[in-house]
């Protein structure tokens, strides 16, 4: 499968502080790739490098099969969408007029505004001035702006950090649909549940280094223990080994009608991150 992004031995230093250390990964066309880690791990620095907002110190970065330019390339910027924490909006304009500016910039038909506002659950707010919106609503407008031109590659830096569960779910549904339509998504988050729901593959970043990279399922299986938890009718919870003796015990419970449920003891992505780094995601 074609790689949309290829990063090799990427390093970034700010004075004496090294923010990224020998980072290498690729993002395949059509996938949702999660870049996961706590605040200060280097996630936002990576996105800023990939979107030409920041120069890297050393290493190679290719996007759409070509080396990343040192300056923003207008033709490349037409192919990407960006949501970061500094994505400014025009406070004195309405939601609709903010998006209209970007329709004109990208040569997109005006009817697209209604479509993206529906996706971010803001259809009723199109006439509202941006300065009157809550932080979470502004974030949703910024996301609408990032996807208004149906980019080939979408960069999302903590896209639901200021949203409540209902609107987060709505955004997730919109992102899944966008991905189905062919948009490749590069997602940074410290929300492991969000990564589980959206990402085809994830990379764990800590102190500027990638600690692990694989599909969520493969990571959970790799770090799972060798036991199974069963719940019996008398509400006892039992942990048994995944072996012949354990299989026989399960068979006996099933034969007697005593078994209610069986669960494999796979860790969450958060559990795995703590195991690898000793740090809790904040």
Automatic annotation (TrEMBL):
<dbReference type="GO" id="GO:0005524">
    <property type="term" value="F:ATP binding"/>
</dbReference>
<dbReference type="InterPro" id="IPR017871">
    <property type="entry name" value="ABC_transporter-like_CS"/>
</dbReference>
<feature type="domain" description="ABC transporter">
    <location>
        <begin position="5"/>
        <end position="232"/>
    </location>
</feature>
<keyword id="KW-1278">Translocase</keyword>
<dbReference type="Pfam" id="PF00005">
    <property type="entry name" value="ABC_tran"/>
</dbReference>
<keyword id="KW-0547">Nucleotide-binding</keyword>
<dbReference type="GO" id="GO:0005886">
    <property type="term" value="C:plasma membrane"/>
</dbReference>
<dbReference type="InterPro" id="IPR027417">
    <property type="entry name" value="P-loop_NTPase"/>
</dbReference>
<keyword id="KW-0378">Hydrolase</keyword>
<dbReference type="InterPro" id="IPR003439">
    <property type="entry name" value="ABC_transporter-like_ATP-bd"/>
</dbReference>
<keyword id="KW-0472">Membrane</keyword>
<dbReference type="GO" id="GO:0016887">
    <property type="term" value="F:ATP hydrolysis activity"/>
</dbReference>
<dbReference type="InterPro" id="IPR003593">
    <property type="entry name" value="AAA+_ATPase"/>
</dbReference>
<keyword id="KW-0813">Transport</keyword>
<dbReference type="InterPro" id="IPR050763">
    <property type="entry name" value="ABC_transporter_ATP-binding"/>
</dbReference>
<protein>
    <submittedName>
        <fullName>ABC transporter-like protein</fullName>
        <ecNumber>3.6.3.-</ecNumber>
    </submittedName>
</protein>
<keyword id="KW-1003">Cell membrane</keyword>
<keyword id="KW-0067">ATP-binding</keyword>
